[in-house]
Design a protein that fits this description.
Distance between the termini: 43 Å
Largest sheet: 2 strands, antiparallel
Strand content: under 5%
Order of helices and strands: HHHHEHEEHEHHHHHH
Number of domains: 1
CATH class: Mainly Alpha
Number of strands: 4
Length: about 280
Amino acid sequence: MSQTAHLTPPPAAPAGWKHFISLDNRYVAPIFITCILLMGHLSFGILESYQRTLLAIVVSIATELALGRIFFHKWVHPASAYISGISVGILLRSPAFWPYALCAAISIMSKYVLRIKGRHIWNPSNFGISAMLFLAPETVATLSIQWGNYLLPMLVIWVLGSVIIWRLRRFHITFTYVVSFIAFAFLRSLITGSPWQSEIAPITGPMYQLFIFFMITDPKTTVRSKTGQCVVVFLVALAEMIMRMYQIVYAPFYALFIVGPTAMLIEIWLDSRRASSEKLAVAH
């Protein structure tokens, strides 16, 4: 999920109604993810509990502030930490409180510890949730509720999310993934004989709303070129399809966990080679 928009200084805000339209991008994603939480919980009770979600948010923000002070010697804007915390609160399922705190802490720490050439390569919440699913499978699970037969909540979230992602100039990533997911869903249906409706159904759930609007579009953990971004999310959808064929329950998280950082590492390696070539050219 978009994690480090706070590094860009906000533009001067115009007066009147234009001030609302030009709302600082640091606040757009937190407002949107809060809407998903409220709509999903009031309609279908998607939260395990308010207390667990609040714990994840508090731990996430506290960890971000502490590590930002330690590593960068400044107070980091908490907007991205709020997104990570609320994502953990929505997506994680556990009867205990400690997994929420630990997952939030792991998510934020991954931004500061797992860095290559000054860049963190995993989406924080994707890393934290995947780590918890690996390390404590008997204690944690993820949200699996769909919107049921009620289309209105899904349509509101999709329209609002699409507008926001378009405003942030990352709509092409979400669009490519959704088209790829649907195409692979039909392919899975042909291979397995399952009804195509059941193969497409997961993308209508609140878990996928967070996945497609936040995790795969995180500016700091996606490659730079638009073409590359589209290729990467296509490969994420492909890897997810293969995992689903093998009955891997948490396929989208694992697919992004593998494909996203691999693409980032390739880009970092290509950047290093390009920089080395330019230095050699200058030297000669």
